[in-house]
Amino acid sequence: MAKSTDIKAYMDAFESARGTLPGAGQAWAEDIRDEAMQAFADLGLPTQRLEDWKYTSPNFLKDVDYATLSSGADIMLEAEKQPGLHILSLKEAVAHQPDRIQTLFEQKIEGDALFHLNRAMASDGLVIRVEKGCRIEKPVTIRHSATGQTASHIHHLILLEERSALTVIEEFTGETGTNWTNPAVMVEIAEGATLQHYKHQNAGPDAVHTAQTAVRIAAKGRYDRFAYFTGAATARDDVRVTLEGKDAYLSLKGLSLCKKGQSHDLITCTDHAVADTASDQAFRGVLGAGAKAAFQGKVIVRQDAQKTDANQSFKNLLLDRSAEVNTKPELEIYADDVKCAHGATVGELDKHALFYLKSRGIAPDEARALLIEAFITDQFEAIMNKSVRDNFMAHAKAWMAGRVNL
Predict the structure, then answer these.
(1) What is the spatial distance between Cα 255 and Cα 278, in angstroms, rounded to a whole number?
(2) What order do you get walking across the sheet with 194-202 strand by strand?
(3) Containing H/E element for 149?
(4) Are 128 and 155 within 8 A, CB to CB?
(5) In angstroms, what is the C-alpha Rg of the chain?
(6) Which of 40, 329, 380, 388 has the highest local Cβ count within 10 Å?
(7) Which pairing describes strands 85-89 and 126-130: parallel, antiparallel, or unpaired?
(8) H or E element, residue 400
(9) What is the pLDDT of residues 72-106, one digit of tens each?
(10) What residues does each domain of the chain span?
């Protein structure tokens, strides 16, 4: 990234806000924020010369002076009191549990300017911890809502101790305004723990959503994530996972429904750091006229990571020839006893299937809708939580209603 004069506006905004941010007045927190802001300044604002931003226009950062805008995202937590589950706001955790929170807050995503900006400017967030051996039955739901011309940098920390289990549901909504939400979620999964993580990005039509998720999985740990993207004018979902222990398992799945004027980009980096780990990635996109989507997925297999099993799949359904999809799966393999595969497909609705349905008396629009629904429903089958699966499916049907000619 090249440095930009725009950086000064962010630096000035940081200096103005720092006294109100969680950890203000605590030397260790101030040091972390200063280091993060300096890293952001050194990197500069993203440009399309960067490989990770090749398919995403960062012009939204220039179109609106987000550096001068205050946080406009509200966080609503829906969680029942359950033994072994602890939830604090970022401000409470920094103030009352500095020894526990410091190590987590120090985690960083190197080379990602917007993540460094998030860590420097984080004004809110949640710290969720599940005690050793506790399996939390009822999901924790986090709802983010942003309206108006605002910018928000939310920072969540999720820690699952040994042999614990939790389900987290994230929802992003908004109706009006060119607001920018730049959230980060840092996840630590200890030995034998399991996290099911579901995300629905349904921000407003003029919104920008740039999200970063970083996950570390210990031995026999499991991370299952499903991201459902339907909102925002520009949306990026950047997920980086390190499998650090034997028999660690990762499942990344997702679906993007994208219409005219929208751009949805997914970036993943899966690092198999040790032997005997497995990852499975499968994403689908449905794109209407003028819609854009991209997938960049990298799998790294380290030299000692023998017996790695890694798969990537990205399938896209184009409803109009003016839709655009870019895919770039990558494998970096330094071990010799592995099983790795990747694939990407881009296609239109099956003309033979359409002809068959029409020959049975089904109207053309209804026939198209049935084929799109089948493509979507098949992907939703990966969702293990029935309530989430049903909610996503109901929303997808509403999205499709009247839009078969997108």
Answers:
(1) 21
(2) 73-78, 140-146, 165-173, 194-202, 222-229, 249-258, 278-287, 309-318, 339-348
(3) none
(4) no
(5) 21
(6) 40
(7) antiparallel
(8) helix 386-400
(9) 678 899 888 999 999 999 999 998 888 888 888 88
(10) 7-350, 351-406
